[in-house]
Amino acid sequence: MNASLKKILKTVIPIGLGVFLVWYSYTITSPEDRQQILRYIREADMFWVGLSVGIGILSHVSRAIRWNYLLAPLGYRPKISNTILIILLAYFANLGIPRSGEILRATALATYEKVPFEKGFGTIVTERVIDLLMLMLVIGITLFLQTDIILEFFQDRGFDLNGLLLLAGAGILGALLFLVFVRRSNSNLALKLKAFVKGLLDGVFSVFKIKNKWGFILHTLFIWSAYIAMFWVIKFTVPETMDLSLGELLVAFVAGAFAMTATNGGIGLYPIAVSGSLAIFGISAVSGDAFGWIMWIAQTLMVVVFGAISFLVLPLLNRNR
Q: How buried is 62 (Cβ within 10 angstroms: 0-12 exposed, 13-18 middle, 19+ buried)?
């Protein structure tokens, strides 16, 4: 398969999958349920929706400040207004072509702040490594808080505790054997995996070289707290979800986070993943779908509106550069 075809497939397949899932969601709901979901969306309290969007904007501002902390040891101090606009523009680009935003971020930084592409891209990779670790931390907290309900969910589907422990043990053993194979092998796959792992470790340890490491850590905690908070406040827009605890909502948050990576911006899949997770806690499909769609629409509109504004404003602010 040539490179151009591979790029086209990477763009078309996620979009096609998202469109299919939107159609699938439409067909599996009855006309009455669709009317109810639309009513929930139309009548959603705009205070909570606006608060969710506002928290989302703050997370992007915090991410821009954190990015500057990574760039400072390299000898570059971009204008914070530029890094904010570049990040908003990158999220906008990712809606169209997955992962194109990372390339765009490094390119725009090189264009407007004269930071070499490879150095800017290296800091973005470090960011992604840290965010991956934070997601794993959130997953661990969620499993700890909701151990009973998750075990009950699997038991209802024919998995007992011994079976789950056996499955987990087999998974750990398989992972260890795979690591041994990768360490000793010189195949192309093994070499790529070694390089990937080395990049992850380099990204993690580079944080300790930052002058303002505590500022970086605090902004990282704020960003992920904001992600959870912008999800949590949406529960007040649907009557049936108002009494959900933070731990219960974290299950849906994690499911939604994985959905965001499967299709462009989570289109189609995000509401399905969130609704399915909320069903574990007795939330009806109608209320779960409404919650998922309200959250997805609010955040997608935020990315589209502010990303489009950034697309226009960034060149204007830097017209003399």
A: buried
Give Cα 207 to chain centroid, integer Å. 21
What is the longest distance spanned by two Cα atoms in the chain? Answer: 67
- Written in H, E and C, the secondary structure of the chain is CCHHHHHHHHHHHHHHHHHHHHHHHHHCCCHHHHHHHHHHHHCCCHHHHHHHHHHHHHHHHHHHHHHHHHHHHHCCCCCHHHHHHHHHHHHHHHHHCCCHHHHHHHHHHHHHHCCCHHHHHHHHHHHHHHHHHHHHHHHHHHHHHCHHHHHHHHHCCCCCHHHHHHHHHHHHHHHHHHHHHHHHCCCHHHHHHHHHHHHHHHHHHHHHHCCCHHHHHHHHHHHHHHHHHHHHHHHHHCHHHCCCCHHHHHHHHHHHHHHHHHCHHHCCHHHHHHHHHHHCCCCCHHHHHHHHHHHHHHHHHHHHHHHHHHHHHHHHHCCCC
Question: Between the CA of residue 178 and those of 10, 170, 193, what are the distances in Å?
Answer: 27, 12, 11
Mean pLDDT of the chain, nearest integer: 82
What per-residue confidence (pLDDT) applies to 82? 93
> Is the Cα torsion angle 224, 228, 233, 234 positive or negative in sign?
positive
Q: Which residue reads 């934070």 in tokens?
A: 134
Measured between alpha carbons, how far is 216 from 294 in angstroms, rounded to an integer?
A: 31
C-alpha angle 125-301-122 in degrees, rounded to nearest 5:
10
Token pair of 119 as six digits? 């150095």
The 10s digit of each residue's pLDDT in 118-136 is 888 888 888 888 898 899 9
For residue range 101-114, list pLDDT tens digits in order: 888 898 999 889 88
Residue 151 confidence (pLDDT): 67
Predicted TM-score of the model (pTM): 0.81
What is the average pLDDT across 152-164? 60
